[in-house]
Design brief:
Elements (H helix, E strand, L loop, with lengths): L1 H24 L9 E10 L9 E13 L2 E14 L10 E12 L7 E7 L1 H7 L7 E7 L3 E4 L5 E11 L7 E4 L7
Length: 181
Amino acid sequence: MAFLKRTATLLTTAAAMVGTSLTVAAPASAAAPWKCATSSRSIDNPSTWIGSDDWNFKMTVCAAHGGSTAYAKVTITWDGPVLTSGADDRTIFDDAEVRYTVYKSVPGTDPAVKSQTVGQKFEDKLEDSDRWGNYNNSFASDTFAASVGSTKAYAGGIIRLDFDGDGRSYQTLRFTLTPLA
């Protein structure tokens, strides 16, 4: 019987320790309210394809602030053109990336504190069509953290696209900044 009591006490203590460690390990962003902004931008695919070949993007940029840390993340959806049925075209872009940045709100010009850029993973999603050749998809970034102290912060996001064979470099789409977090 003493053995059962010791085992029960040990299990209770272990469960309490695990619960405590899980609570401590929870990110501060979970408690901080997210401040988000959603906006849309379109860009023409500079190709000779017949019909609508625009890329229509909608980006939601979010920022949160907990303690001395600001957090940022983005979610993007797009309605791309309909191209060759049933084939992913990995040559639409020479390069494509999404960049999201945390800014610190200070008197004067607000400095960028930290940026996160996602390239190949984002480009792969852009060039991934369904079986009918529709280039409609979505992308959700990871959340990243930046140290900002007690200063208010906000986030912004851009998409940079370099279309294959158009003779131009990157074209940049800028999206609405979040409210202060």
